[in-house]
Amino acid sequence: MPSTVIQSFEYDARTRQLHVLFRSGRSYIYQDVAGETYQAMRRSFSKGEFFNEHIRDKYAFRRVDVED
Which residues form the KTSC domain (predicted)? Predict the structure, then answer.
């Protein structure tokens, strides 16, 4: 199901970083995210709900600028 909040997300297993691009245009990288957490997010029915419950406020993050 497409998310109304999250436009896309990708994971770098080597660095354990989860990059989340929101529909608002804001982009964040979440640090030290376990691969199992990323896989669970991929399988989740609601990406936004999963994000709010399991990632938001649980991992260190930084905002990144997305080039047009």
Answer: 3-59
